[in-house]
Design brief:
The protein is an alpha/beta fold. It has a single domain, classed as Vaccinia Virus protein VP39 (Rossmann fold, 3-Layer(aba) Sandwich), CATH 3.40.50. It contains 7 helices and 10 strands. Bound molecules: S-adenosylmethionine.
Amino acid sequence: MGKNKLKKFADILSLPNVFENFNPDDEYLINGDNDKVEIKGKWRSDFFKNDNPIILELACGRGEYSIGLAEMYPDKNFIGVDIKGARIWQGANQAIEKNLNNVAFLRTRIELITSYFEKDEVDEIWIIFPDPFLKRSKSNRRLTSPVFLSEYRKILKSKGLVHLKTDSPPLYEFTLETIAEDENCIINYQNDNIYASELAYKELIIKTYYERSHLKDGRLIKYVQYTI
Ligand SMILES: C[S@@+](CC[C@H](N)C(=O)[O-])C[C@H]1O[C@@H](n2cnc3c(N)ncnc32)[C@H](O)[C@@H]1O
């Protein structure tokens, strides 16, 4: 492992806005200076210290959406979730530099998400350029698959929105099919080329590392917003 990555791993532990899980068999989280914390059901009271809505960004990478949304909506709380510590480190440091107290990061596998949030604790979920897992045998790993939707239902408020932004036609089609086959899912908005006309939502202007690279390659950006 490079020196830089090692330093990021050491630093991430001491960042006050990062919570990490290291062992899937033991679901506790570490925050700050190696403190063990139980934050499930207590994100508002114990970390954000307000009653504002909580919005998750799943597969957040460097957390550009969490940070961009937090700047747009100071009265909402944002939590970026990813398994890669070095990426989260960048977002967490940026949030600190920008004095954004309404952003936190959770380093864990998204498969464990119900270990860290209570029923109805989450108001909205953004999924931004997730890995498309193109092989059919891996479709359960797609973050918009029925397996994940049933987990999100355990923590997301009724009528809470799910947003997917992707460049991947197969993932986009798979998501639309999953929605169509699920009688509880309702689409609010869908667009298979969001930049072809004026943006429907100002939040869509935020561009992540992966989006910028896909745009450079001339790929079309797709978006669907739905309830589950
Ligand atoms: C293609 S990157 C996109 C990152 C960011 N959203 C962006 O647009 O730049 C996908 C991210 O998903 C994360 N990821 C994929 N599967 C995951 C899982 N099951 N749990 C946690 N993170 C996951 C990866 O670590 C990676 O950072």
